[in-house]
Structures are given as C-alpha cells and as structure tokens.
Amino acid sequence: MKIGFAGFGCVNQGAYKIICEKCIDVKISAVLVRNPAAYQSQFPALSFTTNLADLQSCEVVLEAISSDSYDIALFCAQNKIHYVTANKALVAAHYAYFTSLPTRFLFEASVMSGTPVINTLLSTFGLKSVRGILNGSCNYILTAQKNGQSQQQAIIIAKQLGILEADPSADLDGLDAARKLLIICKTGGLNVNMQDVKMQSITNQQQTNMNLKQISSYQNGVLSVKVEQISENDSLANINGTMNAVELEFEFIGKITITGCGAGSEQTGFGQVCDLLRIMKGK
C-alpha cells in the first residue's frame, strides 16, 4: 500500500519509527512539509515535498500538523485517498462532513494519543455521559501545583520539557480539551457543537496543595471544561502528570474507564499506525 505523510513532526516521526520497526508493508510515496531541507539529511530514504499534488499517488495519508489541515483533508477526499489524522481541530470542526464521505477518515490519535478511546466508541452504542481528564499539559501543571509548585513555575518547566507549546493558550484556556470532548461525543453519536461548551481557564486557579483537575464532561446535555477540586476517592484523583483518563457511561453496560498517555511521539504515532492498519485490513 502506498502511503504519505502530511507534516513530519514528533507524531508522524513516531508513526514512521513504528512502521519501520514493525516492518509494516507500505511504501512511503511522499512527505508533505513546509521545509524539506530541514528533514532530508536525517531521513534520506524519504521523499520530502512542499507540493500537495505529490500526495495524489498515495492510497492513505497520515496527517499530523498543528495548523489548519482542512485543505489537505479535502484534497485527499477529492482524490479518493483515505485520511488518518491527529489534528483535533480538524476533527472537532468538520467531523460530520469527512465521516460522511466514501473514503475512510480515521482519528484515533486525536484524543488521548494512541489510547483506543475512539475505537471503543466506534464499536459500541448508547453513549450517555462523558467525564475525564483530556489535556495532559494542564494535568501536569495542576499536579505540580498539588505538590506545592506555583503555576508560573509549572508552566515554565512544562514549556522546557516540550509539554506546552510556546503559545499555550489553547491548552490553558480549555480549548484543546473542549475539542477532544466534542470528538468523543460526536463519535459516540451525540449532537454537540463547540459553542455549547462552557470553558474555564486553569490560569484562574493558582492554589497549591489542592487536588485540582481540569474536568471535561458531558452530563445531561451540558458540555463543560472546568477546574474542579476532587476528593481522594474520586476515580480520577490519581490521574497525575501527563496521564489522561475518561469515564464513558453507556446504556446497558454502565460506566467504563479508559486510562492512558496524554502525550508522546510514539504514543500518538501508535494511534496513527493503528488507524493505518485498520484501513489495510479493511476494517
């Protein structure tokens, strides 16, 4: 199978590493990036390009870019190319359109890295409620505050470790978690919109030595991302650092909890590769 990459940062490099290590039977036709010279010497076996049309020979494209990728996704759909993405902004905004097309549009890596939340939702029905910690960056900061560190210090260290972007507003203000919450709800068959999500920034919560968590929830039709002080016997109380967890409540079976990594090159790349394998297996 011929595949291509759109973007070649940490996530798709993680996917590429897994593909090579596991000898997955694909041919990489093109890698779409802004600056091919930045990658060519380190990855001489790959063909880097700035030309979107070079993806036309691919059967599947794995996309992981931080900017708007709508035009890339649309190009792939128009050229009957299956699309695998880690781009939560794209999925949250255009879920209905791209999932309605004949080509596959898969996005396991967009929520909780490679932890199989999306696949769980696709193989079940009757989602009633959602409650979880969906942003690893905020969870890292709030965990540091719980351990006595100031929020300002925690943010500085998180940036140094690469946990936070240079502009961390989407994480801190709740937008990133809201997008993930929407993706979970939409995949679970719920009719939800971004304008319905009530978001609260963690920057308003400067307290230390308290067990604060950024909780994303869908309860009785209400969507929210807010900071809560939770008790030690709460099922989310011990989800610390960059770890994520989500409680999904279904008709007939009640609640299940899924816990996993909230960040990481290979972890998120794993989600990309899992979706690629689903396409290759025709699932």
What's a quick, concise take on this entry?
Pfam families: Homoserine_dh. With 283 residues, this protein is α/β, with parallel strands linked by helices.
Question: Layout of helices and strands, plus pairs?
Answer:
Blueprint: E1 2-6, H1 10-21, E2 27-32, H2 37-40, E3 48-49, E4 60-63, H3 70-78, E5 82-85, H4 88-99, E6 105-106, H5 117-122, E7 127-133, H6 136-146, H7 151-160, H8 169-172, H9 175-187, E8 197-199, E9 212-219, E10 222-229, E11 243-250, E12 254-261, H10 265-280
Parallel strand pairs: 1-2, 1-4, 2-3, 4-5, 5-6, 8-10
Antiparallel strand pairs: 7-9, 7-11, 9-10, 11-12
Keywords for this entry:
six-stranded mixed beta sheet, Dihydrodipicolinate Reductase, domain 2, alpha/beta, single chain, Rossmann fold, 283 residues, 10 helices
Question: Explain this structure to me?
Answer:
- Its EC number is 1.1.1.3.
- Keywords: Oxidoreductase.
- InterPro entries: HDH_cat, NAD(P)-bd_dom_sf.
- This protein is of the alpha/beta class.
- The chain has two domains: 2-113 and 265-280, Rossmann fold, CATH 3.40.50; 122-261, Dihydrodipicolinate Reductase, domain 2 (2-Layer Sandwich).
- 34% of the residues lie in helices and 23% in strands.
- Helix 4 (88-99) links the parallel strand 5 and strand 6 (105-106).
- The longest helix is centred in the C-terminal third of the chain and has 16 residues, at 265-280.
